[in-house]
Specification:
Blueprint lengths: L3 E7 L2 E7 L9 H16 L5 E6 L4 E3 L7 H4 L3 H20 L4 E5 L2 E3 L1 H8 L2 E5 L3 E3 L2 H4 L5 H22 L3 E2 H7 L4 E3 L4 H14 L2 H14 L8 H12 L2 H11 L10
Parallel strand pairs: 2-3, 3-5, 4-6, 5-7, 6-8, 7-10
Antiparallel strand pairs: 1-2, 8-9
Bound molecules: coenzyme A.
Length: about 260
C-alpha cells in the first residue's frame, strides 16, 4: 500500500485528499509525486476559487512522511537528497498555490503532515485533532523553511517546546498558541469548512490572490522581500474589472459578481 492523492471539484471549491488510511495517511513518495498535477489543475481552473486539503477518513489529516519508506529511500544523506527532490517539487506546488487554501484537520496532524497544514492559509480542525512534530523521536531535523512557518505561527518558545519534547498538542492548545485558526465539533467540521469556502468563493479573486502573495512575502526576511511583485499585485487590483464591479455593486446596493479579471 503506497497511498494515493484524490481530487474532487464541488462547485467553486477544489478538494484534495491525502489517502493512505492504513498508515494514518502517511505521505509516501508516490503521493508527493501526484500533488503538483492536482494543484496545477485547480490553479488553472477559473471556476475554482478556493481549495480544501484533508486526510481520508477520520483518524488523521497526515501522520507525517511514510516512515516505512525511509530504509529504502531515505537511509543516508545522499538518498535523503534524492527523496527530497520529489517531495520538494510537490511542496513547491503547495507553497506557490495562488488561491486561498484551507487545511481541514481531523485526528493526527504530525511531522510532515503539520508541515503541509502550515503551508495552507488557514487551519480548521475538529476537537479531536492532535498536533506534533516527532523529529526528536526519530533523530531528524526539520528544514529551515518548515521551521520558519512554525515560528511565524507560534513564536520561538512554543516552537522549541514542540520540537524538543515531540509532545502532542490537543486542538484547544493548538488554537491557543496560534497553530490553528478555528476548532469545531467533529460532526460540524466539514459543514463549517464548506460554509467558509463558499464565503471565500463569493469574494474578489484578485484581491485574495494579492493578499495571499503579500502576506506570505511579508513573512520572509525583509532583505528577501520582492517589493515590485507586491506593488504589481496592488496595481492589478486597482486596474481590474472586479474593482469597477465592486464599486458599482456598492452604489447599487447589490451583491457584486466577481470574475477574477
Ligand atoms: N509512516 C508509516 N506508517 C505509519 C505512519 C507513518 N508516518 N504513521 C502510522 N503508520 C502506520 C503504523 O505503522 C500502523 O501500521 P500497522 O497497522 O501495519 O502496524 C498503522 O499506521 C496504524 O498506526 P498505529 O500506531 O497502530 O495507530 P495509532 O492510532 O495508535 O497511532 C500515530 C497513530 C500516527 C500516533 C502513530 O502511528 C505514530 O506515532 N506514527 C508516526 C508519526 C511520526 O513519527 N510522523 C513523522 C514522520 S517524519
Amino acid at each position: 500500500m503506497t497511498g494515493t492523492m484524490l481530487a474532487e471539484k464541488r462547485g467553486a471549491v477544489g478538494w484534495m485528499t491525502f489517502s493512505n488510511p492504513d498508515k494514518r495517511n502517511a505521505m509516501s513518495l508516490e503521493m508527493w509525486a501526484q500533488v503538483t498535477s492536482i494543484l496545477d489543475d485547480f490553479a488553472a481552473d477559473d471556476a475554482i476559487r478556493a481549495v480544501v486539503i484533508r486526510g481520508a477518513g477520520e483518524k488523521a489529516f497526515v501522520s507525517g512522511a511514510d516512515i516505512s519508506q525511509f530504509d529504502a529511500n531515505r537511509g543516508n544523506a545522499e538518498a535523503a537528497a534524492n527523496y527530497a527532490a520529489t517531495t520538494d517539487t510537490g511542496r513547491a506546488s503547495l507553497i506557490a498555490f495562488p488561491k486561498p487554501m484551507i487545511a481541514m484537520i481531523r485526528g493526527y496532524c504530525l511531522g510532515g503532515g503539520l508541515g503541509i497544514a502550515m503551508v495552507a492559509d488557514l487551519r480548521f480542525a475538529s476537537e479531536d485533532a492532535s498536533f506534533g512534530i516527532p523529529a526528536a523521536n526519530l533523530g531528524q531535523s526539520y528544514s529551515a523553511d518548515n521551521l520558519r512557518r512554525l515560528v511565524t505561527l507560534v513564536g520561538p518558545a512554543v516552537a522549541k517546546d514542540m520540537l524538543f519534547s515531540a509532545r502532542r498538542l490537543d486542538a484547544g492548545e493548538a488554537l491557543r498558541v496560534g497553530l490553528i485558526s478555528r476548532v469545531f465539533a467533529p460532526d460540524a467540521l466539514e459543514q463549517e469548512v464548506e460554509r467558509y469556502a463558499a464565503l471565500l468563493a463569493e469574494k474578489a479573486p484578485l484581491s485574495q490572490r494579492a493578499s495571499k502573495a503579500i502576506v506570505n512575502e511579508l513573512c520572509k526576511p525583509e532583505s528577501e522581500q520582492d517589493a515590485a511583485m507586491m506593488r504589481a499585485h496592488v496595481a492589478r487590483c486597482f486596474d481590474s474589472e472586479d474593482y469597477a464591479e465592486g464599486r458599482r455593486a456598492f452604489a447599487e446596493k447589490r451583491k457584486p459578481v466577481f470574475r477574477g479579471r
